[in-house]
Design a protein that fits this description.
This protein has 311 residues and is α+β, with helices and mostly antiparallel strands. It has two domains: 32 residues; 258 residues, Alpha-Beta Complex (Sulfite Oxidase, Chain A, domain 2). Strands 1, 4, 5, 8, 9, 10, 12 and 13 form an eight-stranded mixed sheet that branches. The longest helix has 20 residues. The two termini are 17 Å apart. The protein binds ligand MTE. Ligand MTE binds next to loops.
Length: 311
């Protein structure tokens, strides 16, 4: 992960919520116009998910702008050269056809076509905070559904204790894969109870539209109480195991990146204090909250665990 500070981003770049709503209304109107003209709605309207349910898990904090969320990214498969590289390069990644296979300690291993993944559960808009280990944060209006709905389909065996997430490798479009810094593919993992927690999301869109490639199209994980690196992008395989999976950043720098990676202002990263964070678009830093503000929902998952040891 790279250490760049978002000093160049002015607060005026934040899109207020009203603008987001106006934009949606415009997209809807454009769709109706296209239908009236006998064209497929998709030709005009980019609102891919018109019937989103609002989620009780959403934060009331204002989301960052579409521009912030889609141009300030970490996606090292597209290079280690800075936050704008994913937006510049990821457009070339092929996201159709796409399948996700779920295997390992499950009753019913299965390979899903992405179109079927999109239909697994009612889609929700979930507005979550995302806190990166590098010290910046954003608020992102995801479109998705709880990972537990997907895991229900394949019926985890009693022996399954962990879930491993393996992401896409496309050497032709991903120059980062040629760099030896990491063990590819980018792999992440959760304990099974973390994976089944209702906050753990499979995101397939943001701001009411399909995920832009740089944000992890066509599907990614979002675990809002953990540092952003746990939320693997462009997932192709999910494996249930009885052993803690090896994860990319932990393999590369174990003293810096733990398996748990819960947001914890009391445990500093060796190179960065985790006490405060800079919300992209804001000037002053704000205090980082334990579990990124989701302690009421998740702290009990770690009862009795020394979070300094299991960082
Ligand atoms: N997933 C893959 N496959 N490759 C990556 O480099 N970066 C992680 C995570 N998922 C990454 C990834 C990190 S460090 C963060 S902070 C988040 O994605 C960033 O998500 P965003 O760019 O949508 O904000």
């Amino acid at each position: 992960m790279l250490i760049k500070r978002p000093d160049d981003i002015a607060p005026s770049e934040i899109t207020p919520r009203e603008l987001f709503e106006q934009r949606r209304a415009f997209i809807k109107a454009a769709g109706a116009l296209a239908l009236a003209a006998g064209l497929p709605a998709e030709a005009w309207a980019r609102e891919a998910f018109p019937n989103l349910q609002k989620s009780a898990y959403s934060t009331l904090e204002p989301p960052n702008s579409f521009r912030d969320i889609t141009t300030y990214n970490n996606f090292v498969e597209f290079g280690f050269g800075g936050k704008s590289q994913p937006a510049e390069r990821a457009g070339a990644m092929k996201t159709r056809p796409w399948t996700v296979s779920i295997e390992g300690l499950v009753q019913k291993p299965r390979t899903f076509a992405i179109e079927d993944v999109f239909r697994i559960a009612p889609l929700e808009e979930r507005i979550y905070r995302l806190r990166c280990v590098e010290g910046w944060s954003m608020v992102i209006p995801w479109v998705g559904f709880p990972l537990n709905a997907l895991l229900k389909q394949i019926e985890p065996l009693g022996s399954a204790k962990f879930v491993e997430f393996i992401t896409h490798m496309e050497p032709a479009t991903m120059p980062g894969l040629r760099q030896p810094f990491l063990d590819w593919p980018y792999t992440e993992g959760l304990r099974l109870d973390e994976a089944l927690h209702p906050l753990t999301l499979i995101a397939i869109g943001l701001y009411g539209e399909e995920l832009p490639n740089q944000n992890g199209a066509p599907l990614r994980l979002v675990v809002p109480w953990k540092y952003g690196f746990k939320s693997g992008k462009s997932i192709v395989k999910i494996r249930l195991t009885d052993k803690e999976p090896k994860t990319t950043w932990n393999l590369a720098q174990p003293e810096e990146y733990g398996f748990y990676a819960n947001v914890n202002p009391d445990v500093d990263h060796p190179r960065w204090s985790q006490e405060k964070e800079r919300r992209i678009g804001e000037f002053f830093k704000r205090k980082t909250l334990p579990f990124n503000g989701y302690a009421d929902q998740v702290a009990q998952l770690y009862a009795g665990i020394d979070l300094r040891k299991y960082y």
